Please model this.
Amino acid sequence: MRLEIGKPRGGRAGLCALLLLGTMAAADAADLAELSLEELLASEVHSASRYRQKTIDAPAAVSTVTADDIRQFGYRSLADILNGLRGLYTTYDRNYKYLGARGFSTPGDYNSRLLLLVDGVRYNDNVYDQAAIGSDFNIDVALIERVEFVSGPGSSVYGPNAFFGVINVITKQGSDLPGWRVAGGLSSDRGASARLSHGGKNAYGSEWLFSLSRQSRSGNDLYFPEFETPANNNGWARGRDADRYTTLFAKLRHQEWTLTATHGNSDKNVPTAAYAQIFNDPGSKTVDTRSNVNLEYAGQIDEHLALTARAYTGRSQYIGDYIYGPAPTTANRDEATGQWWGGELQLLTTRFAGHKLVVGGDFRRDTRIDQKNFDRGGTVYLDSRRKGTVFGLYAQDEYALHPDLTLNFGLRYDHHSASGGTVNPRAGIIYRLQPETALKLLHGSAYRPPNGYELDYITNTPGGSKPGPALKAETTRTTELVLEHAPGASQRWLWTLFHNDVRNLIVTSLDPADGLSFFENIDGARTIGSEIEWERRWLNGIRLKTSASWQRVEDKQTGKTVLNSPRGLFKMQLSGPLMAGWRYGLETLATSSRQSLKGQAPGYLIANLNLRSPAVLPGLHLSLGVNNLFDQKYFDPAGSEHVQSRLQQDGRIFRIGAEVDF
Amino acid sequence: MRHRLAKFLACLLLCLGEAATAHAATLGEAEAKAAFIYNFVQFTNWPAGLLSSATAINVCLRPDAAVGLALASLSGKQVHGVPLVVSALREEAVATCHVVFVEASDGAWMRKLAAMSPPLPLLTIADLPDPGAAAPMITLTLVGRKIAFDVDASQARRAGLTISSRVLQLARSVK
Model:
């Protein structure tokens, strides 16, 4: 019986047919001209420039994607959105999407080194600490107002898993998507998508937003040369790449109170025969279900004191079916269920002149961290249950020493019932060389505790896993220099130089004596890198954002570059007006070659094009898109669970979409 | 899943069927400011003869101003019988402008304009008052999540412009 080690896990993202035509920007030219002074005075505005003002003062290099960018470039998943950002890259194994940051995306890591926040609430699960960014993310991207990526260690404020960065997803309010809206799309990879939403706001200041989305993609037939034998259908996995997911979203806001519920279910067939399964079997798949309910109070106690309080509960469930031969086949099932609740409190005060002081604390109770592995109708190999408690206390102060010089200090203590306590500091100096130019020197640390999977996934079966030495938390220390120059609101330059020192990295090792694998801490890795970004908007409506990153991640023991770590990354997003009110969005993404366990994924450059219409009929907007415009053949490195050394990615895909608002 | 969807739909219909009145969506700050500027242009009268000889109303601003794109989307609209155009604010061509919009971060321009003597028949608008700089004729200010504006009508009069009482009535303050 081959009970495989490594966590089979599933869900997958983005390439699905979800052609979500975003909703039209609130203000068409025609609308703007029709707004009276009275209406304008009564309108609430959301401020991009105030936000930008903030990024130049932020003690980090922040990247932002807005709802308008999501529509303009036809992004269909959180992974698509993040893949366009400076220094980030995604990897897809036709099951899950993985995000790399600062040259780090170890095969077998389920995004546990990135913290995913939705409206301030942690969305990483509690079994794998996974940040779901593919079709397993339970929010439709059309409901996202803004995504911010804060690179660098964030544990001094956010605690565990804010290791290489924090992904902050801010969802829309009811007034952002008023009335009923219906959207639908089709794609050439046999995909279809649909969304229905209703939002609004009443005179008492209450807002509501409900949305239901369904995406379904049957996928194309895939050829894997590694399986080129008659017994394996000559290497063809036919109809084995299906990806289907449903998400539900509900948000109610009344003055300072917001209640949000998100739910998603994604069902992904696995075509790669990962974990030594038999090839081209229809039963091989993973199903991920994630649900979250969050209640937030965000209020101003007095002029100088703001309070944010949150209570939340969440549940994640993963069920993987793994089919093993020879005939009659055995279906092995791998399950994980996480359940948690928690709360947090944050006070922000500006009472002391020159200081902006934040203090807070949070608590999480893990009521279930359960994992199970068994042959269906047969042997049980693993049945582990765990509970846990995590709490943290932190303080951060922003001290304006001088109008041009701001100091930023933060300190946080966390305690995990499974792995003990840890302290993470952060310090930053922000110096305004000119009103529009800031130089930032930042230093901080972050940690990632061993997760439930690393602690408990022990099967003790041949080819399986056994207990290793006691695991310590991974830590990282980062020093970073950032130069940001924003002459006017329509232009921004950013340059960074950073050094990371990762210690006690948790990896899977194989004991040659018994063929069993185990987790252990190893020395770690050292990174040096630099990024540059330029963003510009012109009066004629053209917008450009482009970035280039260079980094070198070296394994401290071997001195070699770590796996799946590109030396260079290039991103470019260009959008502008076409005739008759249409707009184009052209995205170019390039990644240099990456090493995999058994080979190499060569570098590539791909382009995606998306066209968006104005209202062709009242309330009706259309979009046309092509992913991988030039039909480039490109690959992502495969992890140790694959026979393949690299996995081919999607070729050219055409999309069409429509959205109607009533 | 099908049952869940049905329930969700039923809930949507029940809970929201009637209450669902779509209220004004929030505007982007830049879009709102552009719409304000467009209104101000409509409710300002230039010295007699000045516009009749003009082929367009020229709104000048720094190419990198945040409102630029929103304002550019209004170019071509007819105001006072001529189309609105948006162009880059350049010192040597300031005399061709009818409206100058200056951002808060650019107080130097406001000082330059204030120093011109005699004053040009220019409607000057700025966002956020810069206490160090000369005040423009109209100042847009973000108050909480809404935009308010203040008018210096006497300065406008000195430049030969008349700002309609409709604007003055809605201003937060009038000098």
